[in-house]
């Protein structure tokens, strides 16, 4: 079994640009990546590949294989899967709330395909027992696409239900969840930049350096 983390550092997380500069986003995604690698290592997964668009923003301590490909998430992952001869866990780099315990549970499921949905129709983690028979289709409500692809292949499927594993950090309001539930380096980074505002409704983040709140 091996894990692969698709990763793009350059101008990462453009949807966070209302609250973080380009440089901050590039630093932030590297820290989220470190948190994801730690969760994999905590689960005993030592065979970890990073499928990346460049060698920028890779944690210095990373010991696995770095596979550099052209931008294009689906093409690069599908090429990777075609060449895989053992079960593959595809885990996105923007999941700083994922723990070793989630990874252990996901990889213990006996079904052919395990899907961890992402917020708003995405796919945060895919565990595929027969990877060279599978094709991924990220973006455009990939959760639905991955369910359909699994069904079309006549494979068994398990949807892994977890608030923390399903929380990917895409938009400013997701940073609230990181500050509330995070434990690692990305949370530390967020705490240096944002405060939280509590009231009757949901907690909001606000910049520590300015008086006005942005969401
Ligand atoms: N290898 C590879 N990984 C990618 C590419 N685009 C995105 N990723 C990774 O795929 C995962 C999910 O991507 P998104 O959530 O869309 O991240 P993003 O593209 O940085 O964010 P936005 O600019 O806000 O869409 C993250 O781990 C990204 O680092 C790509 O072209 N190639
Ligand atoms: C890549 C994409 O990520 P999202 O835009 O949902 O974070 C997806 O999960 O299909």
Q: Can you describe this structure?
A:
The radius of gyration is 17 Å and the shape is globular. It is α/β, with parallel strands linked by helices. The chain contains 6 helices and 9 strands. The longest helix has 21 residues. It has 2 domains: 158 residues, Spore Coat Polysaccharide Biosynthesis Protein SpsA, Chain A; 34 residues, no CATH class. Helices cover 32% and strands 20% of the residues. The model has no long low-confidence stretch (mean pLDDT 96). The chain binds guanosine-5'-triphosphate and L-phospholactate (PEQ). The site of L-phospholactate has 9 residues, from strand 6.
Output the keywords.
215 residues; Spore Coat Polysaccharide Biosynthesis Protein SpsA, Chain A; 2 domains; binds L-phospholactate
How helix-rich are the residues, as a percent range?
25-40%
CATH architecture of the largest domain, by name, is Alpha-Beta Complex
Question: Strands of the largest sheet, in order across it?
Answer: 3-2-1-4-6-5-7
Task: Characterize the quaternary organization of these chains.
Answer: single chain
Give me the count of strands.
9
Query: Separation of termini?
Result: 41 Å
Keywords: GTP-binding, Nucleotide-binding, Nucleotidyltransferase, Transferase
Function: Guanylyltransferase that catalyzes the activation of (2S)-2-phospholactate (2-PL) as (2S)-lactyl-2-diphospho-5'-guanosine, via the condensation of 2-PL with GTP. It is involved in the biosynthesis of coenzyme F420, a hydride carrier cofactor.
GO molecular function, one term: phospholactate guanylyltransferase activity
Catalytic activity: (2S)-2-phospholactate + GTP + H(+) = (2S)-lactyl-2-diphospho-5'-guanosine + diphosphate
């Amino acid at each position: 079994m091996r894990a692969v983390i698709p990763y793009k550092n350059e101008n990462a997380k453009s949807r966070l640009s209302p609250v973080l500069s380009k440089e901050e986003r590039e630093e932030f995604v590297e820290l989220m990546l470190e948190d994801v690698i730690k969760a994999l290592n905590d689960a005993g997964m030592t065979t970890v590949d990073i499928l990346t668009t460049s060698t920028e923003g890779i944690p210095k301590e990373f010991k696995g294989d770095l596979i550099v490909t052209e931008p294009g998430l689906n093409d690069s992952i599908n090429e990777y899967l075609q060449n895989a001869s053992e079960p593959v866990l595809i885990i996105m780099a923007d999941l700083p709330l994922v723990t070793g315990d989630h990874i252990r549970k996901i990889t213990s499921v006996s079904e052919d395909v395990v899907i961890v949905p992402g917020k708003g129709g995405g796919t945060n983690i895919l565990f595929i027992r027969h990877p060279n028979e599978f094709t991924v289709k990220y973006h455009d409500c990939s959760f639905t696409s991955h369910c359909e692809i699994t069904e079309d292949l006549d494979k068994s499927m398990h949807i892994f239900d977890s608030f923390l594993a399903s929380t990917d950090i895409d938009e400013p309001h997701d940073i609230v969840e990181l500050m509330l539930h995070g434990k690692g380096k990305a949370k530390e980074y967020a705490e240096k930049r944002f405060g939280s505002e509590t009231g009757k409704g949901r907690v909001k983040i606000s910049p520590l350096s300015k008086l006005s709140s942005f969401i």
